[in-house]
Write a structure and sequence with these properties.
Serine Threonine Protein Phosphatase 5, Tetratricopeptide repeat, mainly alpha
């Protein structure tokens, strides 16, 4: 009966057996007897289990492929970042684009590309990439955590291999009579022990916590809007900047400028004072202009 039921299900899925005929055939095959229901449950649970196992396998394989993809992309990102810091912006752009060709969700590459375009005053492109950087930031945090977890796993495997080798060498050492060979074994044992000592502290490093979008992302976003004369959006991004980093002097300075342009001179002075207090270089003529308008 179980065999007939499986054939029946197969025929139904292939469209050989229509719904009405299917109902009749179910009755004929006596599927809904106690024994039939038990068999049906067994089949159902079996297929659920198979689907779950293969689903899990596919998930971990996809995650592993994604981590490998991230590692390859990140090499180009690190080169691009290095060029950017050296102010070699054309070379930086080339490497960052290679990174994004491999992994378009690489938020840090998007962030640095946005900076490159901002420096060139290509504001639409700068805006496009800073928005992508913020949108994909959570994904990148996940990639960093997964890659770090994979790194720890490799370290554990490496330590286990070294400990096995160490045990083998130590086991053979007492039986070695040749002095040169014995010295070679002792040096190898010392080297392996040193490698194990190096790995130990690395395994104690915690997996990086899930981070928030850095204040620098909001500050760049604000600057782009400011240059585009979209002061409402710029103001919002500067406020997000100081929420994340209350000591961001440059953000306070630019908020002072926005309030000054809106003729809110008292607020402009307050933000300018905060900018000074947090290390920003303030234009003395700008401060004089605020004070002059407050006296009117």
């Amino acid at each position: 009966m179980l065999k007939n039921f499986c054939v029946l299900i197969y025929e139904y899925r292939k469209g050989v057996v229509k719904l009405k005929k299917y109902d009749k055939k179910i009755k004929k095959e006596r599927v809904f007897t106690k024994r039939g229901i038990s068999n049906l449950l067994v089949i159902f649970i079996f297929f659920l289990g198979v689907n779950y196992i293969f689903g899990q396998k596919d998930f971990f394989q996809d995650e592993k492929r994604m981590i490998q993809k991230f590692k390859i992309a990140d090499k180009f990102f690190q080169k691009g970042k290095s060029y950017f810091i050296k102010k070699k912006f054309e070379k930086a752009e080339k490497e960052l684009n290679k990174c994004l060709e491999i992994m378009s969700q690489h938020s840090e590459a998007c962030f640095y590309l946005s900076n490159v375009f901002y420096d060139r005053k290509e504001l639409k492109q700068a805006l496009k990439y800073i928005e992508q950087a913020k949108e994909n930031f959570k994904f990148m945090v996940k990639m960093h955590v997964s890659a770090f977890d994979d790194y720890l796993k490799q370290l554990r495997e490496r330590r286990q291999d070294l400990e096995t080798k160490l045990s083998n060498y130590k086991g053979k050492l007492p039986g070695i009579k040749n002095r040169d060979l014995k010295r070679e074994y002792e040096q190898t044992i010392s080297s392996i022990e040193n490698d194990i000592r190096i790995i130990g502290p690395k395994l104690n490093n915690p997996i990086p916590p899930v981070a928030k979008i850095p204040s620098g992302y909001y500050y760049l976003h604000a600057n782009i809007f400011f240059k585009m004369k979209n002061f409402k959006e710029a103001y919002s991004q500067y406020m997000d900047t100081i929420k994340l980093n209350p000591k961001h002097g440059k953000a306070y300075n630019n908020l002072a400028i926005i309030h000054y342009m809106s003729k809110q001179y008292q607020m402009a002075l307050e933000y300018l004072n905060k900018a000074e207090a947090n290390g920003a270089k303030v234009n003395p003529k700008f401060k004089e202009a605020i004070l002059k308008n407050l006296k009117k």
